[in-house]
Hints:
The protein is mainly alpha-helical and about 130 residues long. The chain folds into 2 domains: about 1-65, no CATH class; about 75-130, Arc Repressor Mutant, subunit A (Orthogonal Bundle), CATH 1.10.10.10. It contains 8 helices and no strands. It has helices at about 1-5, 10-25, 30-45, 55-65, 75-85, 90-95, 100-115, 120-130. Helix 2 (about 10-25) runs antiparallel to helix 3 (about 30-45) and helix 5 (about 75-85) packs across helix 7 (about 100-115). The chain is elongated and about 50 Å long. The two termini are about 30 Å apart.
Amino acid sequence: xxxxxxxxxxxxxxxxxxxxxxxxxxxxxxxxxxxxxxxxxxxxxxxxxxxxxxxxxxxxxxxxxxxxxxxxxxxxxxxxxxxxxxxxxxxxxxxxxxxxxxxxxxxxxxxxxxxxxxxxxxxxxxxxxxxxx
Length: 133
């Protein structure tokens, strides 16, 4: 991995991270594997053409049974996240979606946790960076 990082080729780096994360999960280091998967996802998010690596990464995560810390957002969480970009309050989002404030607030907290952020601005920026929006 050291040489791949040194070479600075992002797709080569991800190509090496995928099997390393799978092996790391296989020996029981789920946190280490999750960190590697998360880093690989972040690298792929900024690559314009990752080819088959995105599919390989997703398959490796499923096979390893490891969440990369940000998990997959549910359809409802993505909907709430999209509405967060418009500047609506959580109460207004609830009115739009016919949900209670508490339900919307729970979705927002879940989005923040899965994306590893702590504010609306961070969530929106992170989601745009990962092309979730």
